[in-house]
Amino acid sequence: LALENQPWWVVLLASYTIGTLLSYQLIIIAHEGTHELVFKSQFGNRIMNMLGHMPNWWGPFGNFWWSEHRWHHSVVVDKALRYGPQNVNFLRKAFFTLIFIHIINFTIFVTSLIQVPIYVISTLLHFLGLRKNPNCFLYIPPYDRFPICASGWMVINFIITNIYHASLFYFGGWNPIIYQTFSSGFCNGLHPIGMRQVQEHYLLAKKQPTTSVYPPFSWLYLHIGHHVEHHDFAKIPWNRLPELRRIAPDFYDNLKYYNSYMEVLVYFFTNDGIPIDIFLEN
After folding, report:
1. Residue 238 Cα distances to 36, 247, 250, angstroms
2. Are 228 and 212 in contact (CB under 8 A)?
């Protein structure tokens, strides 16, 4: 709300600096909830997942990610083309890292405006005995990949997210909305911290589907850079991942890794990496 009457450049500067880090930390907290590492109950973890994602997304992303991210852990390389092929030129990479998350954000918001009312109405009709099936599901992106997302949790997530953003707009106008939207975009895109998407999913070495980064002040990023370790043991919480690497150096120190997020950014824009088709062939 402190940004309510600030010029646009102050809003963008705040987004690129402190906003990016805070958005990043919220996403990692939501991530811990998704793996049920915050509370003992699944209910508490689902709420944490939604609340952590709420400032970063216009739609019910937390509910979607609860299913999508768990599936991702069984595949790992499914996001290797997130910013397009690794051998595209500098400008295309910069363009995709700027817009990719905003496209996802807008898509989930628009499709949820269609999906949620249809789900609620069909459920009510079933309850009244006017419909045989309990709910109606439209196979539209991104829900077409994960129909399990159509549930009461989707409705709850939709309601609390929209109440939050409506309240933010009511008390602060457009600037807080713009600040949070761009903070989310930067922490998932064209920013050193946003390069975690590249560090985690772009391929550096054959037979190594993901890569870790061990930056200075790793605790500030909640140690999520320990991505190989996390995929090996998804039920180990963030604060114990460095200990896992320490006690098992033979498994991690010989792998490819980065020393900072800035190194990831430079590598991404100056190297082609390994095309996913070549990686899968080997």
Report:
1. 12, 16, 21
2. yes
The set of residues, in sequence order, having a beta carbon less than 8 Å from that of 266 and lying 6+ positions away, is: none
Cα dihedral across residues 122, 125, 129, 131: positive or negative? negative
Q: How many CA atoms lie within 13 A of 276 on its CB side?
A: 15
pTM of the entire predicted model: 0.88
Q: Where are the alpha helices (DSSP H) in 196-253?
A: 196-201, 227-232, 241-247, 249-252
Looking at the DSSP bridge assignments, the partners of residue 205 are 208
Going by C-alpha positions, the residue among 121, 268, 119 that lies closest to residue 204 is 268
Q: What is the pLDDT along the chain (282 residues), one digit of tens a residue?
A: 677 788 989 999 999 999 999 999 999 999 999 999 999 999 999 999 999 999 999 999 999 999 989 888 887 666 666 666 666 778 888 888 888 889 889 999 999 998 899 888 888 888 888 777 776 666 777 777 787 888 889 999 999 999 999 999 999 999 999 999 999 999 988 899 998 888 888 877 777 888 999 999 999 999 999 999 999 999 999 999 999 999 999 999 999 999 999 999 998 888 876 666 666 665
AA identity, residue 268:
F
